[in-house]
Design goal:
With 430 residues, the protein is α+β, with helices and mostly antiparallel strands. Helices cover 45% and strands 15% of the residues. β1 and β2 form a beta hairpin. The longest helix has 33 residues, at 284-316.
Length: 430
């Protein structure tokens, strides 16, 4: 069993993921049929420390460079896209929780540092402030990995005042729920185009109370002003929210694309077209398409890992991560699934009618990658204007990871920072 607390140059997370990949690959088809990741795969990734890559050392985590974590995600996704997707979704929460209040961190991780947390962040329900906390009501879709989690985070909007104004604007909040709460209902409705194996489910709440300490102001965390940063001081936790939360959609898409290429090469090596009796592996057009697909995935993976390396090295050097760096990283990371879709859809038609059978593994891989492209993190259109705005030196127009100045200042004030003071956070600020 790999020690989750120790990494060396000869034992990276990516190395550990490669060692797990053959068995995870063997279970991939069963994951889709069973519509959930095999327990054995989850346990193997826990023992290898993959879920604890970004966890604070105070809980026995690794505080690993993000490049290594997302690289490991590529390897697991290459073996099984659904398993890699769950690794990313469940594995990112230890990074976020490191910035929350210590009461929440201890509640979740003190007794069992390997506790897994799922999420459904989109504001699909309502939260009403009440004495001591909030009451939640609504339905939250697509909580990936929830079948292996003990807690879940859901999102809702709560009106807040903005700086210098009496205006109230919707503020993004997160609410932590123990899944053993009898008032939390999990509904099996995950019948989708792809990623069937993720075991995603709908969370239904009907007037459920959440205490104040489990309610998290996401804008404060986006501004790198969370209370947990007073204790968890690693540069890892100063990285931008956009880059860290887009990555769990980016790396599995790249890995899923590589998995498709692996299977395509295996099948194409044996396939001969009946119409002209030519082997696909010797057809120049098919060879060109394969080379193009390989280049798309290689280029995108290089860019993805470069963005994480650049951000991490900047934070380690104690330098400010600029808005331009954040915008470019978010945009590039959001392009990964588009590149993977282009790669696999360019190759799929070359193998003829045989691939339309549901028993053909290429069909599952194609559907998985296409489903990843539909995720909100993998929509580059959302991030284009922020890239251009950053290059022109304009104020952020505003999305969930790039807050307009008035909203950003209001978040800092709620966190106890004084506008313009020396204590105002610089890492990851808008």
């Amino acid at each position: 069993m790999a020690d989750a607390r120790v990494l060396t140059a000869q034992d990276t997370l990516r190395d550990r993921a490669k060692a797990l990949a053959p068995k995870i690959h063997e279970r991939a088809d069963d994951n889709e049929r069973n519509r959930v990741i095999a327990d054995e795969s989850i346990q193997e990734m826990i023992e290898a420390g993959l879920f604890r890559a970004l966890q604070p050392k105070r809980y026995g985590g690794l505080e690993a460079p993000p490049e290594d974590f997302f690289g490991a995600m590529v390897e697991i996704s290459r073996a099984c896209p659904s398993t890699g997707w769950v690794l990313g979704i469940l594995g990112i929460h230890v990074w976020e929780f490191a910035q929350m209040n210590l009461e929440v961190q201890d509640e979740v991780y003190a007794d069992d540092p390997t506790t897994l947390v799922s999420s459904s962040y989109a504001a699909q329900g309502s939260a009403t402030p009440v004495p001591g906390g909030y009451r939640l009501k609504g339905e939250w879709r697509s909580s990936s990995g929830i079948m292996h989690a003990s807690w879940s985070v859901v999102g809702a909007k709560v009106p807040r005042a903005v700086a210098g104004s009496d205006e109230l604007v919707p503020n993004s909040m997160s609410f932590l729920l123990p899944l053993n709460d009898p008032d939390v209902t999990i509904v099996d409705d995950w019948y989708t185009l792809g990623l069937a194996g993720t075991g995603s489910r709908r969370i239904v709440l009907d007037d459920v109370f959440v205490p104040e300490h489990r309610a998290v102001d996401r804008d404060v965390l986006v501004m790198k002003a969370g209370p947990g940063l007073d204790v968890n001081t690693s540069p890892l936790y100063r990285l931008p929210y956009g880059a860290m939360y887009i990555g769990p959609g980016s790396a599995p898409a790249i890995g899923g694309g590589w998995g498709f290429l692996d299977e395509y090469i295996r099948q194409a090596s044996k396939y001969t077209r009946r119409i002209n009796n030519m082997r696909i592996s010797e057809d120049r057009l098919s060879m060109s398409r394969l080379a193009h697909a390989h280049a798309l995935l290689s280029d995108m993976e290089i860019v993805m890992l470069h963005r994480y390396r650049e951000l991490y090295e900047t934070a380690c050097a104690g330098q400010e991560i600029t808005r331009e760096q954040q915008a470019l990283a978010a945009f590039d990371l959001s392009r990964c699934a588009s590149a993977a879709v282009e790669a696999v859809t360019g190759l799929m038609p070359t193998l003829g009618a045989g691939v339309v059978y549901s028993s053909n593994r290429l069909q599952r891989l194609l559907r998985d990658v296409m489903t990843m492209r539909q995720h909100g993190t993998q929509d580059p259109d959302v991030h284009m204007t922020n890239v251009a705005g950053a290059l022109y030196g304009r104020e952020a127009t505003g999305d969930q990871f790039a807050l307009p100045n008035n909203v950003a200042q209001a978040a800092l004030q709620r966190a106890g920072y004084v506008n313009g003071s020396a204590s105002t956070p610089t890492f990851g600020s808008s």
